[in-house]
Amino acid sequence: MIYLLIFIIALVVSWLTTYAVRRSAQKLDIVDRPGPARKIHTQPIPLLGGVGIFLTLVLVGASYYFFAPPSWPSIVDDDVRIKHLIGLALAAFVIVIGGAIDDRFALKPTHLIVAPFVAVLVVIAFGLG
């Protein structure tokens, strides 16, 4: 029952953050416009979806860690420490920033590899192998 409650909370938070990011992308004109090459949509589509998903991950994960009753299962144990979770969150943040920059400026493929490479270094630096 606990996991169903967490799922419902994550679903609602995801809907809210995705809606907010979508509105922001439209206002900032960070959209994918229809064009001749491999585009099947007929109207502009807001980008930055990864930002909404990342915000959901951080909000729900941090809320669970700080506010879950002691009787609920812990997300931290002998194998998974808080530094590992922070490392994963920071690595995800690096990926999201790289994706957002690509959404805004349409980076070349050779530049797209920078964010995943940095994210891997962050994960390794925080002790995950």
Structure description:
- The protein has 5 helices and 2 strands, in the order αββαααα.
- It is about 65% helix and about 5% strand.
- Strands 1-2 form a two-stranded antiparallel sheet.
- With about 130 residues, the chain is mainly alpha-helical.
Question: Alpha-carbon distance between the termini?
Answer: 33 Å
What are the secondary-structure elements, in order, as H or E? HEEHHHH
Q: How many strands, what sense, and barrel or not for the largest sheet? A: 2 strands, antiparallel
Q: Give the mean pLDDT.
A: 92
The geometry reads as flat
Spans of 5+ residues with little confidence (pLDDT < 50)?
none
Strand order, largest beta sheet: 1-2
Beta fraction of the residues? under 5%
Total helical segments: 5
Number of strands: 2
Radius of gyration: 18 Å
SS class: mainly alpha
Helix percent reads 55-70%
Summarize, please:
The protein is mainly alpha-helical and 129 residues long. The protein is 66% helix and 3% strand.
Key traits:
129 residues, mainly alpha
Secondary-structure blueprint:
Blueprint: H1 2-27, E1 31-32, E2 45-46, H2 49-67, H3 82-105, H4 109-112, H5 114-125
Antiparallel strand pairs: 1-2
Helix pairs in contact: 1-2, 2-3, 3-5
